[in-house]
Specification:
Eight copies of one chain form a homooctamer. Chain A has a six-stranded parallel β-sheet with strand order 3-2-1-4-5-6, with helices on both faces. Chain A has a single domain, classed as Rossmann fold (3-Layer(aba) Sandwich), CATH 3.40.50. The first copy, chain A, contains ten helices and six strands; from the N terminus they run E-H-H-E-H-H-E-H-E-H-E-H-E-H-H-H. Helix content of chain A is about 45%, strand content about 15%. Chain A has helices spanning about 25-30, 35-50, 65, 70-75, 95-105, 115-130, 145-160, 165-175, 180-195, 195-210; strands at about 15-20, 55-60, 85, 110-115, 135, 160-165. The interface of C and G includes residues 207 and 211 of C.
Amino acid sequence: MTFRNGLASLLRPEDSVLVLIDHQPYQLANVNSHEPQMVINNTAGLAKAAKAFGVPTILTTVIAARGGLLFPQITEVFPGQEVIDRTFINTWEDRTVVDAVKATGRKQLVIAGLWTEVCVAMPTIQALGEGWDVTVVTDASGGVSVEAHQVAIQRMIAAGANMMTWLAVAAEWQRDWARLEQAAALTEVITQHAGGSGIAFLWEQQLLNTPVPAEAR
Amino acid sequence: MTFRNGLASLLRPEDSVLVLIDHQPYQLANVNSHEPQMVINNTAGLAKAAKAFGVPTILTTVIAARGGLLFPQITEVFPGQEVIDRTFINTWEDRTVVDAVKATGRKQLVIAGLWTEVCVAMPTIQALGEGWDVTVVTDASGGVSVEAHQVAIQRMIAAGANMMTWLAVAAEWQRDWARLEQAAALTEVITQHAGGSGIAFLWEQQLLNTPVPAEAR
Amino acid sequence: MTFRNGLASLLRPEDSVLVLIDHQPYQLANVNSHEPQMVINNTAGLAKAAKAFGVPTILTTVIAARGGLLFPQITEVFPGQEVIDRTFINTWEDRTVVDAVKATGRKQLVIAGLWTEVCVAMPTIQALGEGWDVTVVTDASGGVSVEAHQVAIQRMIAAGANMMTWLAVAAEWQRDWARLEQAAALTEVITQHAGGSGIAFLWEQQLLNTPVPAEAR
Amino acid sequence: MTFRNGLASLLRPEDSVLVLIDHQPYQLANVNSHEPQMVINNTAGLAKAAKAFGVPTILTTVIAARGGLLFPQITEVFPGQEVIDRTFINTWEDRTVVDAVKATGRKQLVIAGLWTEVCVAMPTIQALGEGWDVTVVTDASGGVSVEAHQVAIQRMIAAGANMMTWLAVAAEWQRDWARLEQAAALTEVITQHAGGSGIAFLWEQQLLNTPVPAEAR
Amino acid sequence: MTFRNGLASLLRPEDSVLVLIDHQPYQLANVNSHEPQMVINNTAGLAKAAKAFGVPTILTTVIAARGGLLFPQITEVFPGQEVIDRTFINTWEDRTVVDAVKATGRKQLVIAGLWTEVCVAMPTIQALGEGWDVTVVTDASGGVSVEAHQVAIQRMIAAGANMMTWLAVAAEWQRDWARLEQAAALTEVITQHAGGSGIAFLWEQQLLNTPVPAEAR
Amino acid sequence: MTFRNGLASLLRPEDSVLVLIDHQPYQLANVNSHEPQMVINNTAGLAKAAKAFGVPTILTTVIAARGGLLFPQITEVFPGQEVIDRTFINTWEDRTVVDAVKATGRKQLVIAGLWTEVCVAMPTIQALGEGWDVTVVTDASGGVSVEAHQVAIQRMIAAGANMMTWLAVAAEWQRDWARLEQAAALTEVITQHAGGSGIAFLWEQQLLNTPVPAEAR
Amino acid sequence: MTFRNGLASLLRPEDSVLVLIDHQPYQLANVNSHEPQMVINNTAGLAKAAKAFGVPTILTTVIAARGGLLFPQITEVFPGQEVIDRTFINTWEDRTVVDAVKATGRKQLVIAGLWTEVCVAMPTIQALGEGWDVTVVTDASGGVSVEAHQVAIQRMIAAGANMMTWLAVAAEWQRDWARLEQAAALTEVITQHAGGSGIAFLWEQQLLNTPVPAEAR
Amino acid sequence: MTFRNGLASLLRPEDSVLVLIDHQPYQLANVNSHEPQMVINNTAGLAKAAKAFGVPTILTTVIAARGGLLFPQITEVFPGQEVIDRTFINTWEDRTVVDAVKATGRKQLVIAGLWTEVCVAMPTIQALGEGWDVTVVTDASGGVSVEAHQVAIQRMIAAGANMMTWLAVAAEWQRDWARLEQAAALTEVITQHAGGSGIAFLWEQQLLNTPVPAEAR
């Protein structure tokens, strides 16, 4: 067991691959660790950030014909992309998904899904054992109870996983505001999905574009 | 002091007028009673519901040149509509706003704004004294602390105000799912802004449109 | 507005009628104020207590062909009983339900349902205006958020409703442990649904039925 | 029992008198409803706002030789002002304090103190019975437990008291940002004591005083 | 419905009578609204304060032979006093208890018990209807859930009851620290049961009895 | 200290053995970390899942003649099975229990019990030292306070234990929905004990079995 | 970094030594992580348990002449015992304390104190570096905020410390209820300080000593 | 991975260097893990403590011309000191900051900033990989949500970082109250920023300087 640190351990867009697992109606119906609207919002924000930074994203569901299709807020980000449907609850035992991930050639595996303690925990733990660097995006995930969510986070930490939240992932991919091309796309994502910062940004732009007034309030 | 009850006390679209107050960057920057993204989400949902039911909506800000423009998530619902800018913190002391409300001829006044304890409380309390039936939408509002928000709710209740949350207002305007025309519009709002219900609805539609399978999971 | 007090204001089985509203899958899927299992448990406990005390119970749903059937944990308590299906969101605007309630000849109306802020609030407020004595069972109900649930409780209090929780309703119907026939039935309900008390009761019985030992721990 | 509403019910600086009660070390040592630093901060902010709006402020302690002197953060706002020391726990039974309040000729009595459930509740309830309009500033007060604080608020509401938080009182005294003289003083108070808004204000001023740049972030 | 305020509405030792209801093992085993040790501590503190101020205290249980004897921490305060055992869950329907209360000739009825929503709520509501002035001591009570406890408080407020916490009752009985005889007894109670204040008091006494040192820390 | 990860570290029914410890009345009477009904529910759900997957389950109590018998909700799952009674608080120092576990020949030891910090922590820590792979099911356990429960979890993590919640254990045993025989049994458990998912499943089945209607809501 | 597990890692009375640090008025006055009465109660319970099991206890304060004497609830457990007064905030840099601990010849060091993040954290971290096996009793400690307390726990875990709560320590020292002599003393401690369990025990004894009745409730 | 313990691991003023990162308006506008006023207060307290102990402090911002200047409560502590402005979000990729830190020749790196999960996490993780001993001051930091803040703390712990809160850092720098010169300065900081302790200290001084009275309260 070693500490996971150093500059190389930070997420880089060119080395990252995102896997979104089972953001489906059956699962969401019993998420009790988060406000469901925030789970949808955070996952959509994460998906758009991945797209903005050119991070390949794998979409997968479990028996979607019964448990329901992936949230449209996610599929709309990737029009036309195949969603890999499985019977395995543990995504990492499904060859199609793992092959799709491997095909990207990337080793920084970023995972979010429903539920944290089942559909996220199992592939995370298995992949760690196979040498992957795995980051779990906890606030784009959710569990059947607060305890289920938190205990799963502790279990995955003990397995060597890296824990983050969606806006931190996006900021780590950006890393330097001097990278202007992605900054614009990221700002758009923030405005839609991290409203506390998005509205502050719009205010900043409004005031910067206001000629200096004679006096202040 | 009388109980507020009876069928007539329920909100009706044709008698309602919505006033959205000071959903601006300066105010949002110090909202600590709610997740800011949820305040934006709930207010946008409320605005769209009002539009769907033909409820006139008054938009107002305080010194927007400094404190920032209304959230675009709100103004986009009402393209081209004037936002009344004030210097009065208490909206109800501003003649332009009150005249606009009176011009609608409606008496069920629905208010949301930032902050609950200032920009919502003052007009609510004044209007109640002038005989208006006032409903405050608490989750499309927000205060500088949980205590500020909750104490303001208790104050407004003691002033005779009616407390609701945004989805309850929308459902009360709908009242009967047999009113099909608004139901479709409302469902769209729910899908976007009340994701826990929206995703459940999409699942329902998917499954209803699935031919009966031979056997079940 | 008057205080609701006095011996006559307490619930009596012979004057009570219970209405259970919209305990359905679509609604439960977005309950975020309570652990869903507890809502089911509490509602089943309430239903069984009503049955034990001979309190007539009206069951109703809204468009069950789409939003799903009443929880089986409830319908199993009343085998063969009709569930009144409505299109009105506001149960009290549905003639069939109101007639069924009136047919019982009882005036202490006890209501629980999903969601607190919609399906419970509207009939409660309307019935209060028509002179009914209305008690809402808050922990056999649930809302889309903690705030939605709590604000609805405050609204219904301001409308004159009486707020209780399920075990308190059951105990108020019992009133005197000397009423032995119902006590046995109530104890069975408690053992199944109020486990903290049920297990304590079983322990009490075990120890009472233990011959006095020579010495103590 | 009547609703407290209408424009006249809002606080006005010229009709207000502030009484700060027992913000002393012995009391603060067992405040468990709030972070002590926030109680000090909020009370100092309230005191400075009163001073800025010319609201007379009465300072009082109970046996300060033993329980300790008023917080310096309060006394420094009113250099040289007498602090009335009492043996009565109930401030309103102390003639000196009541005479001092009456001498101001004002009828909007604003009270904050430690503890909410003792030193604030008793004078509030007594003064209400004598016809005063009493506002309690809950977040410049504090109790020995969260329950003690909240139950006292409910008790005082049932006695007819008006509940507010410190920043809401200050904003209500301001009422209109066009009143420029007090606005500057209030802004200074906000910068020191309502940092979330104060920092936002400083940012606003910085950006307003920045010439329009060529392009935006 | 009238506001309960004015000096006469404050509790006085000579007009108060305390009724402690069902602080028994069976009830405590399913208290989930408070830490059980705090319920015992607060009730013992309340009992001792009553004794210190000469407030007569009625002790009662429901079927103690099965549900267990009153906590010894309470009975030890009143050695030899009869505990009235009932079968009625609603204490106020038991003639022995009501007669004992009436025999004291006092009209300020102070009640605490387990559970808040059953054993406290019923007698409180009935007694209010018969003209008693009833104060409920919420933190010397407890319910089967936080919601059960809080909803019961709201119900009793709507019935006209006065809500307080134990230390506030004790301080209101004291009213003036110049009443030295009770002050000593109250201080002893605080030292044992309100440790945050008790320890602060002991410190105060230690330092006051320390000769002035040459310099400070 | 090594990370616990890899496919082999996931729970398998054929390698698991479940030990349920001290789910007794004396212990439950002072559980304050969870709602008691949920502890009973979760433990019963876990027990039924174990049975469904053929996982041998050891039942044990400590001095049941005094502290009470195992909850009937557990013993009813295993009719006629012996419950091993101990005097050792630490189950792992009781030869009978350890021998029973060893007799199963399984090495994935799954433990739940009351209290987390005593009856679960001690055998977990001892067994880990003897080379067992130990998983603690935290939500089928409970402690005397939230802090006691959480600190014990942290202690057991530092000892090398794996933390999970009951539904995650069941899902990990299932692993693949293509294993149809257990899926049916698991679904029955979920319907009874994980109502948020159970009700969603029943809805899914209802809608799948509904012929495609002409139009949608 | 190694896992701390195995039977030998459990606490044994004959190998334990308890150090209680700075349970003084100055420190308690700013404890905001716990109810102060519970901190006093838990520390007294821990002290009495140590005494019951013959665990030597070192008492120490920092500048007691100014910051106040140790709580009498602790010193009363050890009449006449010296309290070592220090100027070092870090107890482990004080030779007198460390020598006293070493003189006991025991290696299982159990520490509790105020504040967790200062007076507990420093000696814990230093002693761990010197090879001691250190257990921190978190609920007999307390910090200036919930975050301060919890972050300190995480820091000490990262330093190798073992985290427990007071009742778990007592139960681990007992280990087997067959050790009757200490069991009686421990039961007395539980009755006084772990009331939820103490009252349950008294009930158990009452019922066991009740002759079997003819019938049950 | 090794435990971080031993006397040498405690913070020493002469080996510490403090880096304050991005305490700016844009960041504060979306801090939702803490009360913003407390973040400002704690950071100012930490800055003053560093100054009192001669700990060099590096101040840095990201694009201050847009996101706003450092809080004046911080810059006022270091009049005239340069604030290093960056475009890198990750401070540790900015040569100017790292060179400034290295120039101090100190190896105990203490970091606080906004947001915990972005501007604190990245430099902490990178610096740890380069061999620095890094302490994060969590309550002088803040994140966009409670989960973002807490998950970042868990991530940094897994990277080997040391977690503390501001007052603990100050006390660890002090270490011994016999160091009188810094004690006075630290006391001044506590009085301003840790009011619960500051007010207690002032009381202590008042009482110590009071001649012993004839009798006590």
